[in-house]
Write a structure and sequence with these properties.
single chain, mainly beta, six-stranded parallel β-sheet, 1 helix, 23 strands, 41% strand
Amino acid sequence: MGISYNRIFCNLMSTEDVSYGRGIGCGGREGGCQYNRFYKNIIRNTRAPNQIGGDHNYFYYNIIDTVENTEVEERRYGNEQGIVLTPGRSGYPEYISCYNKIYNNVIYKCDEAGIEVEDWHDGYSVKYNEIKNNIIFNCGKNSVKDLDHVGIGDYSDPEVPVRCTLNILQVPLSFIFPL
């Protein structure tokens, strides 16, 4: 049994008055968190990234507006991405983030990268994810990791490719919101 086949859609999420909080998070062992769909959500003013782990999960047509550094000192280590593909738990090699799809999202005003890929277990736990057709701008604006305006950060095993195609990075605001 696991957390699978759920649909989370058409929500407005905010943790504006919370010192550390994310809009969406999922993760687990292979087969334990799979085939969930997150779409048409607006996630605004959070202080932690949206985490996508598990396998075969889909995150599409969402808007992520503003992910800022937390005031919680032990969590202040560059953890303010729009989306992070991660196994979600350090020290648990059975936790994965594989075969997930991140498509057609708009991500802006993140202190760290718009999308980041993290692997803590030597290439086993994060692989074969697809990042495609996202619009990412004004990210890496207050980076603890010294990233200057980074759209996609890849900290996974270089032997395991992340499929990234047709992402629009660092577009001017007038392109998205014409006057």
